[in-house]
DNA sequence: GTAACTTACTTCAAATTTTGAAGTAAAATT
DNA sequence: AATTTTACTTCAAAATTTGAAGTAAGTTAC
């Protein structure tokens, strides 16, 4: 609707990697000297959003099964994501909120569970006693490290060569752009 | 961990688009004739997953606010995504499941709400009476169309030129690859 | 110095979303 | 005709997210 056929001599690929054309409302092709897109599918806003939703679901269930394999019962995928977001630095709740765009009460809730499970330590900051400083405990680091370990196999499958790496990076940066655009829109209205 | 420095003469960019290097555990740079990545940040599995989680959250809240603007109270973002997934074709619940990798009982639940709200019609298939055929009602199409309309502004911001389009497409296809890899892994184990 | 305001979080209760076990009925298979 | 499989639905419970209200520490303006 927004982008119309940009070039003459349009060719339509009927199938891309398992998806049939029905999944893409708008398809157009371009023939330029570019290496990357042989065909250009014009991807809309909502298609990306739906894809992201699906992929997110997939990942959550994968993470759940990794956790099960590790025999961990008191940490769900959402909490595991919080642990991974904390990583190996010490930070405040506020910084953690920024990292994941969580809602405050939500993080509080997760941190409570993770604290109870012994995965994180919380120390009141010296300078500002309102601010709780968070860090992983030994146990928390162990879990993250196990998860990262298990994740290594996926990294190897996903990043087979330079081309893959490039695409992963473009995907990452494009998602970051989506994040900014959608986030600003929500705050300031487009 | 997986990808080590691939080339000599490594240069590290300390900041990318608002993110500081601390967000990326592994950074390496390459100097090749490629146009796209001046620097290559090696993006891992989990970083992509965290990004996807964040972006998903952003989008959901944006969608929620669009729905509020439209004065719609009986459809949440999740249900709206189902409506958008249905689109303008008539399909069975099974096909819808595939489209979003939903869990059966989940879709059933949403479809019930959407049916009650008058957004979809369900007709038992003639050939196979187990299979319910789903399609949007006038009201459902209206809502989707309003949403797509509102979405147009985002498409214009996101896809400013050919380069943007290419990146959006690469992001889309890369996400699809993630979907497949993570999905297969969940079923068959890496 | 103290009253008012802001910041940084926590708590709780409710809403939403997801999950899984069990059920139903039609179709396919044996 | 009996059995199994498919295509869904229902229900109850669990997980996650949200928002309103609260607390306590810090800041600012008299």
List keywords for this structure.
DNA-binding, Arc Repressor Mutant, subunit A, homodimer, 2 domains, mainly alpha, 6 helices, 7 strands, 55% helix, disordered N terminus, two-stranded antiparallel ribbon, 190 residues
Structural description of this entry:
The structure is a homodimer of 190-residue chains. The first copy, chain A, has 190 residues and is mostly helical. Chain A folds into 2 domains: 49-158, Winged helix-like DNA-binding domain superfamily/Winged helix DNA-binding domain (Arc Repressor Mutant, subunit A); 159-189. Helices cover 55% and strands 11% of the residues of chain A. Chain A is built from 6 helices and 7 strands; from the N terminus they run E-E-E-E-H-H-E-H-H-E-E-H-H. Chain A has helices spanning 45-69, 77-86, 93-100, 104-116, 138-158, 162-188; strands spanning 15-16, 19-20, 27-28, 40-41, 91-92, 120-124, 132-136. In chain A, the strands form 3 sheets. Chain A has a 3-stranded antiparallel beta sheet with strand order 5-7-6. In chain A, a hairpin with a 7-residue loop joins strand 6 and strand 7 (132-136). In chain A, helix 2 (77-86) packs across helix 4 (104-116). Chain A is globular. The interface between A and B is large, with 81 and 82 residues. The first copy, chain A, binds a DNA duplex (30 and 30 nucleotides) through helix 4. Chains A, B: This is DNA-binding MarR family transcriptional regulator. Chains A, B: GO terms for molecular function: DNA binding; DNA-binding transcription factor activity. Chains A, B: Keywords: DNA-binding. Chains A, B: Residues 45-180 form the HTH marR-type domain. Chains A, B: It holds the Pfam family MarR_2.
């Amino acid at each position: 609707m927004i982008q119309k056929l940009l070039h003459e001599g349009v060719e339509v690929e009927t199938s891309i990697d398992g998806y049939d054309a029905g999944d893409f409302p708008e398809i157009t092709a371009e023939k330029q000297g570019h290496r990357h897109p042989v065909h250009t599918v014009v991807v809309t806003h909502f298609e990306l959003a739906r894809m992201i939703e699906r992929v997110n679901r997939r990942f959550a269930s994968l993470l759940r099964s990794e956790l099960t394999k590790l025999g961990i019962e008191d940490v769900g995928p959402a909490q595991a994501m919080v642990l991974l977001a904390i990583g190996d630095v010490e930070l405040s709740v506020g910084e953690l909120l920024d990292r994941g765009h969580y809602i405050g009460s939500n993080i509080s809730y997760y941190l409570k569970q993770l604290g109870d499970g012994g995965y994180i330590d919380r120390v009141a900051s010296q300078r500002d006693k309102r601010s709780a400083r968070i860090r992983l405990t030994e146990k928390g680091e162990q879990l993250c490290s196990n998860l990262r370990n298990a994740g290594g196999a996926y990294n190897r499958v996903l990043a087979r060569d330079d081309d893959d790496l490039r695409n992963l990076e473009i995907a990452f940066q494009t998602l970051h752009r989506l994040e900014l655009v959608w986030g600003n829109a929500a705050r300031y209205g487009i």
